[in-house]
Design a protein that fits this description.
Structural class: alpha/beta
Strand content: 15-25%
Distance between the termini: 19 Å
Strand order of the largest sheet: 7-6-4-5-8
Low-confidence stretches: 2-19, 50-55
CATH class of the largest domain: Alpha Beta
CATH topology of the largest domain: Glutaredoxin
Helix content: 25-40%
Number of helices: 5
Order of helices and strands: HEEEHEHEHEEHE
CATH architecture of the largest domain: 3-Layer(aba) Sandwich
Radius of gyration: 21 Å
Shape: globular
Largest sheet: 5 strands, mixed
């Protein structure tokens, strides 16, 4: 059975889905189980881990209540904002007050605007996306309806230590080229980066995986 659980975990890790979930629980017989399927109601010591590699600036569902985690994994929320935009500020405050984990994308130049248009088809701020549902302009009623339909709680259930990810530009910014060294090569070291040491295995989980 241990080999089966290990194979399952490795397969899930290899899949690399942005919102994949892995559950760990203890059955009535004391057996620890890992699965990508939610545990039965009789399970004890249930733990949930987001094993996907979310995009930069995206919130993680690790440690969040089950209802919130399921909603954000099925219907991720993204807010597009701009400078000196009062409706954007009101929308951001609304999401935080309701306890909605969201990614914030800032629109400050033409590249950001083009990226937002490409993804949402809109050019007016703010833009809120809840899964495939799109809201343009801040309107508490329609925003609330979209969030509730997606399964988000009516009131905040976020832990007190929850931290909202920092806002990021809507379009990825180009990195300036590094100055060349005297040899004509980039000044960065040529030696390949060393992979970090993996933490030891826990239970029947493979090395590198830890709840």
């Amino acid at each position: 059975m241990k080999s089966t659980a290990t194979v399952l975990i490795l397969a899930l890790l290899a899949a690399g889905a942005a919102h994949a979930q892995l559950y760990k629980w203890v059955g009535p017989d004391g057996k620890v189980t890992y699965s990508d399927v939610p545990p039965p109601k009789t399970a004890a010591k249930v733990e949930q881990k987001n094993i996907g590699s979310a995009a930069g600036g995206a919130p993680s569902s690790a440690g969040l209540p089950y209802e919130v985690a399921q909603a954000m994994n099925n219907f991720p929320v993204t807010l597009y904002t701009g400078d000196k935009c009062d409706p954007c500020n009101s929308g951001r405050s609304y999401l935080k007050q309701r306890g909605i984990p969201f990614s914030e994308k800032t629109v400050t130049d033409n590249d950001d605007l083009a990226r937002m248009k490409q993804l949402t088809g809109e050019s007016r701020l703010p833009v809120l996306t809840v899964g495939r549902n799109k809201q343009t302009g801040f309107e508490p009623g329609s925003w609330g309806t979209a969030l509730t339909a997606a399964g988000y709680p009516q009131t905040s259930q976020l832990p007190k230590n929850w931290q909202q990810p920092a806002a990021e530009p809507a379009a990825a910014k180009k990195v300036a080229a590094q100055p060349a060294s005297h040899s004509g090569k980039p000044a960065a070291a040529d030696a390949p980066a060393q992979a970090p040491d993996l933490p030891p295995a826990t239970g029947n989980a493979p090395p590198g995986f830890r709840f």
